[in-house]
Amino acid sequence: MARLRHVLLALSGVLLLVLVLYNSEVGFYEYTEADESTRYKLLFTEFASGDCSSTAINTDLSADRMSDCIAPLGSYAATDFTLAAFALFAIAAAPALALSEEGGVKVSRGMAKLMARMRLLLGVVLSLTGVADALGMLTGDGSSLDWTAVFGLPLPSMLVDVLLIGLGAYTIRKSLGRLKSIGEAPDRFAEPWERQGGSSQWKGSIERRKQEGGPPTVGDLRASLKLDEYEDIFQIGTSSELDSMRVGRKCHYCNGQGCNMCNFTGELD
């Protein structure tokens, strides 16, 4: 189901981008007069208002050779750029979301910090734009921007300003949290029992028996595997010359100096 959702998102973006390009370059509206047809670009915003029927467009073209519902081919408005941006975002986001859910997105710590800082900068720009427009600092007469002309949709200026400030604040908060988590991440791989909240269930028998303060010794490992019960090449090669009065051989753990493995006798039985 998740994979189908990602495919539908990508297909929606491709379809929207194709519609924008086809409408601007080929034209959705065709006007025929005296057996001569001419194609025009259809303005989506005017068409959505409900005042752009085929009869009304033909009447305007017959009278004035122009109509508010259409535009010449090859012209792009703010609405086209907005729709194209949404389409490209959907096309790029679909595979990224699919990879992230499957755990396939792997980035280095430096790249992760760079991306988080870029999102932080984007959030600051969005918030400052909303605040500046609300205060009338983006126009010469102290009024808000005409967002209808920017997006091609009838949007109140106050609503756009609130959305910009809210989206910017959300982006800033997420970016700061991401930067904090990256800074607290360990530089090396941590064993399960070394992580916060880890328990001794991840430790083996040697680690559980060994007191804190150092790693297990070779002697601990050999004792846990019961290697001292067998005669092998390693033991034979490290054994000492024995006389008839001695039954042990020099301890190869301490080289005869005495240790826990030989009970400080310097010899193994």
Low-confidence stretches: 188-193
Helix and strand pattern? HEEHHEHHHHHHHEE
Radius of gyration: 38 Å
Based on secondary structure, the structural category is mainly alpha
* DSSP E strands, number: 5
Rounded average pLDDT: 77
DSSP summary: helix tally: 10
The largest sheet has its strands arranged as: 1-2-3
- Note the main sheet: 3 strands, antiparallel
The end-to-end distance, rounded to whole angstroms, is 67 Å
Shape estimate: elongated
User: What's the helical proportion of residues?
Assistant: 40-55%
Strand content: 5-15%
Give keywords.
single chain, mainly alpha, three-stranded antiparallel β-sheet, 5 strands, two-stranded antiparallel sheet, 269 residues
What does this protein structure show overall?
The chain has 269 residues and is mostly helical. Among the domains are: 107-184; 216-268, no CATH class. 53% of the residues lie in helices and 7% in strands. It has 10 helices and 5 strands, in the order αββααβαααααααββ. The strands form 2 sheets. The protein has a 3-stranded antiparallel sheet with strand order 1-2-3, sandwiched between helices. The radius of gyration is 38 Å and the shape is elongated.
Brief summary:
The protein has 269 residues and is mainly α. The protein is built from ten helices and five strands; from the N terminus they run αββααβαααααααββ.
